Amino acid sequence: MLDTTENSETLLEVNNIEVIYNHVILVLKGVSLSVPKGGITALLGGNGAGKTTTLKAISNLLHSERGEVTKGSIKYRGNAVADLNPAALVKSGVIQVMEGRHCFEHLTVEENLMTGSYTRRASRAELAQDLEMVYEYFPRLRERRKSQAGYTSGGEQQMVAIGRALMSRPETVLLDEPSMGLAPQLVEEIFGIVKDLNEKEGVSFLLAEQNTNVALRFAHYGYILESGRVVMDGPAAELRENPDVKEFYLGMSDEGRKSFRDVRSYRRRKRWLS
Amino acid sequence: DLVFPSLSYRTGPYAAGGIPFADGYADYFTMVNARDGGIGGVPIKMIECETGYNTEKGVECYESTKGEGALVYQPLSTGITYQLIPKVTADGIPMHTMGYGRTSAANGKVFSNVFNYPANYWNGASNAVNHILDINDGNIEGKTIALVYHNSAYGKEPIRTLEELSKKHGFKLSLLAVDHPGQEQKSQWLQIRREKPDYVVMYGWGVMNQVAVQEAANIRFPMENFIGIWWSGGEHDVLPAGDAANGYKALTFHGVGKDYPVFADVQKYVVEPGNAAGAGDQIGTAVYNRGFYAAMLAVEAAKTAQEIHGVKDITPAMMRDGMEALVIDEAKMTALGMPNFGPSFSVSCENHGGPGLGGVAQWDAGAKEWKLISDYAPSDMEVIGELIVEDSMAFAAENNIEERCN
Amino acid sequence: MSANFYFGVEVFLNGLMAGVMYSLVALGFVLIFKASGIFNYAQGVMALFAALTLVGFQNGQIPFAHLINAIFGTDLHHFGWHMPAFLAILCALGVMILFAFLVERYILKHLVNQEPIILFMATIGLAYFMEGFGDLMWGSDIKKLDVGIPQGGNIWLEENTAFLGGEDFYGFYLDNLDIWATVLAAILVTSLVLFSQYTKTGRALRAVADDHQAALSVGISLRSIWVIVWSIAGFVALVAGIMWGSKSGVQFSLSLIALKALPVLMLGGFTSIPGAIIGGLIIGVGEKMFEFLIGAPFLGGATENWFAYMLALLFLVFRPQGLFGEKIIERV
Amino acid sequence: MNAIDSYLTPDGRTIGAPVMEMKNITLRFGGVVAIKDISFDIREGEIRAIIGPNGAGKSSMLNVMNGFYHPQEGEVHFRGEKRGPMRPHQIAHQGIARTFQNIALFKGMSTLDNIMTGRLTHMKTGMLSQIKWWGAAQREETANRELVEKIIDFLEIQTIRKTPVGRLPYGLQKRVELGRALAAEPKLLLLDEPMAGMNVEEKEDMSRFILDVNDEFGTTIALIEHDMGVVMDIADRVVVMDYGKKIGDGTPEEVRTNQDVIDAYLGVAHD
Amino acid sequence: MIYREAGDFKTSYAKDQQTFPIAFDRWGYFITLAFAFLVVPFIINDYWINAVVLPFLIYAIAAIGLNILTGYCGQVSLGSGGFMAVGAYAAYKLMTGFPDLNIVFVIFLSGGVTALVGMLFGLPSLRIKGFYLAVATLAAQFFLVWLFNKVPWFYNYSASGQISAPERSIFGYAVTGANALPAVSYLFCLCFVVILAWAARNLTRGANGRKWMAIRDMDIAAEIIGVNPLKTKLTAFGVSSFYIGIAGAMLFAVYLGAAEVGEAFGISKSFLILFMVIIGGLGSIFGSFAGAAFMVLMPVLLKNVMVGQLGWPTDMAAHFEFVIVGGLIVLFLIVEPHGLAQLWRLAKEKLRLWPFPH
Ligand SMILES: Nc1ncnc2c1ncn2[C@@H]1O[C@H](COP(=O)(O)OP(=O)(O)OP(=O)(O)O)[C@@H](O)[C@H]1O
Ligand SMILES: Nc1ncnc2c1ncn2[C@@H]1O[C@H](COP(=O)(O)OP(=O)(O)OP(=O)(O)O)[C@@H](O)[C@H]1O
Ligand SMILES: [Mg+2]
Ligand SMILES: [Mg+2]
Question: Which InterPro entries does the annotation name (chain C) (predicted)?
Fold first, then answer.
């Protein structure tokens, strides 16, 4: 595993941001995090913690949801993100894979993938090669390349969404729940791909994940978000050893993995809340 | 002040006709104020209110102006007229619908407050047929006349009359409806091309007129056999078709062109001081003259009212009496600088519609002007009168109106 | 064959031609819908505005003269030049592109990711606005538009087909203007189809229509897409404005041609450029033939307006997405 | 197929007669064969899992069960009767409710209203008494509201009762969707990846709910899930699909050790 | 704290379901009603009633109707003008055919007739959706207008095809015709508005409303949870047309007094009502009122300011009116796509938090 902590440059810096939806709903209450170049950073947390919101704030997609960053700053390579429109951001190498797939329903799978290369000036041959790469990663997509994305299964759409992002040859990928709805085998594969890209091509990742187990296995560093605040952060290996994380995010108790059948509704209070 | 509201429409689909009319209506009042210091010394106050040819806005305009002591309404829209008939009757304000509106309002026995002198739609239909009769030495047995009409209350008005006349004169009538706004009339004109009617009479308004003239030119229908009602006889209706429109005829009940002494006054008292309504470029056009004429009739009626009641500051009720007693003769018009500008006629309690005299104007594309080619000739009151009685009595029955003037 | 048959054929041909005229308007709708999922009600007003601008340039009218005169008491009307048609068209096109920029800047930008009906409403608001604005700028009187396109029956055709139907038949009547419209439409459609199917931008257009947010997320700049599309739509509006304006003069009613384009759109499918043409042909022929065979003889005429819609409705019941529209994806 | 009428689960519950039987179902979309000749049954009171790789046809299978897709071949038997051609809403009235893989909540409505829609199949007052409101309509509304409030308590979503669901985070939306399905008091509940996008803690909760529903109301449940831990723990029997075919069927234990299943789906044998 | 809901606890579900759960709102509502019934009739004059109040009330009914269809059930309709025409002509035929029939019945019956016609034109909605449906409803608009224009039976064979409302009275007071007193026709309309708004509220808050909204938000899912789409859409079309028909009947009989179908019930009417619904807020009864008020008042206000106060030429004022109304519509949509009702709601949320920002 790459050691990323000290000397590598910080690509993305989120500084104490506050996000409000619809002028009234305060969702992020001061979130700070940083993504180092060449690192895989995980953003963990329960439902509604604000992971998606954080990612959207970074990729500047909040506007279209009537959300606003009201405090704090987000910098990519030292430039304030707020000044860039989403397209410019993609051009400078940041791409987001949105939660819930968001494929272009009426475009075929292949056309969907091709839209990923929209900001690139690449030759046909290069594009064909990249397309080939995506198909290598997801052979299932090759079979379905001519069908309209709207008719593919949930998992296939997830693959399309990820493949589409890869087509932009990004420098930083914001992955929102990539494992959602994917078969276990494929989850492993996807994280394998993430790791691959990270190690071979130096792509940095910020990934929001519920599947803490896998996420922490592949990430270098993790942040845990709860109700719009970062409650804990640290190198992935350390987080994995934290007893609270173990209990609440990895589903382990002292005796090893608990059975889902045995959990009771009763819950222990999380240490950081006390 | 004597208040004359002008329910105009300078916007919307019928603005092309609404603008010149409103200009003419306004300019006459301006002229009277500047030249004579008003009517009998009382200045005129004209309140313009934009209706956009929309009935609801028309009502709003009516309500907002009637409180000012409006003397007479000239709504320039058949739709608004229908709306206002009960209202003006209840409020005791007269309404003048000149050459449009509810034709049977000519029956003063039923419609106490509505006037439509000097001519109405049915007169127009008969005038057109009479003109055709004239050309054909009084015999049009077996000929075909096609009516191209705006598919609305207005356009449908002449149908009954024409049907009666066709029975009487033995011509064949063929009806062609054109839907609002009338940009696309291919079907109708192909049908005309196919059926080759001898004459085409048109009841159009707005863009429908231009398209019809253009289409007629396109299929090379002989223009001199194409006769429009007065509302289809504006310059803007024929100009777009260029030379092809040469010879097109339109009915009229007032003078066309600028060749009247009164226009010198307009020039002097209205245009030169910079008080012309609108852009001031409409003077002398057919529809401008119509507005001008309408205002003249209103002023004359007001004068009559002042005479009858011996008061200068007349009320709407007095104005109504003035209108009912209005007499327009050649001497009066000459004195006004408008010799032969319109037919001579008089209004009475029973007859609010005047004699229904109408002339024919023909378009000279080279000179770009209308030329009056006939005298103001009477229409077939035998037929029309009967229809008017029938329709107005039906209205009276529906609304429990007792006949007046007995 | 009887003359009646040839009359039928003539009506049919003219129906085709009328259809082409409708298609010219429908194309603008399709472009914008395809590219952004916006049902642009303002398309008709855009055609009017484009035509007004064109005439204004041609005649050297001073924009807002009326307003200026009213405020400053001046008496301005014309610059006093007469611009050649070609130059005036270019200038009008420039104005339409500027318009596209402004629409993006002040309206669309703020409405990213809204429901289609909201965008639709915004375009109606825009239509209102432009209607008033166009009138303020150029005046609401009727104007004659002439860029040199010939009008009137095509005599050559008429003379050379007169022998077909015997004495009562004069030969086929086709309006020269319509023939021109057909040529223009063919060129427009071909180039637009090529553009949207085979270019990167074309693909991006379709992506934007499906999902604004996702399009943003892959780096498609909605702003430039919208400016491009609205510019093209502005151009199409200009073409439609020229053709319809030559036919009926330029004035308010020109904006109502949008209503003639809607059934075409519905029948051809909101997202299909060829659909706009084929839909137009079907609607044109359908309404003219119906009026010829049934409407005028039996129903008292003026059936065209509703019949076009009914015809389209009938088609839709069998194909809810129109003839060539993208299938509506229904999944759970 | 299965000769036995009932069997006993490891934890001692009795599983009854088949509620739903799928017989030789084949479903095609143009050239794509989503389901190829699959048969299996779901028995009274059991939790039946359907697993398989992406695009295997699991969701399509649920869609066949609730009548949204009509298979080209094969029969569906519900409670012993063969099902004729029926519209999905009729099937809902027979007592089948479901949740969806891509959340299909009614975005413009509050949580409460969404769950109340689940009760629609049980609400019968006519239009006129609705207009009048006082009386029958209000009584019915209140009665159903009480039941729905129970479900809300049960799912622990009291605080978001009046929030429009569009604003809710993903996990809560899934819970609301479950609530909506439960509100219908279905005989058979179909769940399509109810736990996707949840972390372990939330999955534990969700598992708890599912088990409780099954326990307390005796609802039969068919469940699609990719988390093998969950499936192994809470399912009574598992069907495994791959490319539209059935490649395994049996208890979790049997399935887990089935080599075909390991190859096609699990990748490695899971603990 | 002026606006508060804290401390306003509900002890039963019935209480929780009431229309105005917050006491403050409830009182505001009662006061408005009392004002409308007890004060307005005495202070109103001819101008206000005819230019503003009557159209506002009548359009509010139509807007509620369309809101039921479009806002609650998600079916965009551009046929409202046509349906209003059905109401108007039905009223005309009933009034002239059965002179003794009470005007209240006439109006309700007209609504009923319109409901039937609306359901007929609603049939294609099972297959046609979204904008395709919107455009398809134009078929109804154009066809109905053509029909009423073409078939003389509808306008009792009058020469021009205009219909005019004969005088009818209730408790001896004329409500239609020229002799109706402003206060009488105002109260007459107000009663209808209150009853219909109340009925609409009841229809939309219970099972029916939920069915409609389910169809609106996701028709497939709705069908799968047991909503019969055809039946639901048809009831929406029916109820909606009922309201719109009543509005049409009143527009003709009480407000305009005379009408010509193409002019009074043309396509611009359809758009006008759709505007009201959207500006006001889809899926909100209050929004229907707000939208109607906006669209009726705004032009009158603008006109009075520009022509009356500033003395601009009428044509320029009219052009500016278009520019301003169009601009405002766009502005509203940008500021709050969910309409005035949502703006109001947000304002209340803010007030609730006041003086704290969040
Ligand atoms: N468009 C919106 N309008 C209002 N509130 C919103 C909106 N989007 C999200 N929220 C609120 O913001 C909070 C954070 O949501 P977010 O989607 O960021 O959570 P998340 O961590 O991604 O959760 P999940 O794991 O379920 O996806 C939630 O409480 C949600 O209700
Ligand atoms: N309506 C449809 N039209 C065309 N193809 C379809 C349709 N529905 C499903 N398919 C195809 O059928 C196959 C099975 O889809 P299904 O959604 O059932 O998969 P799944 O097993 O649920 O997968 P996942 O775990 O990814 O959700 C897929 O390849 C999909 O593309
Ligand atoms: Mg999220
Ligand atoms: Mg699935």
Answer: ABC_transp_permease, BCAA_transport_permease
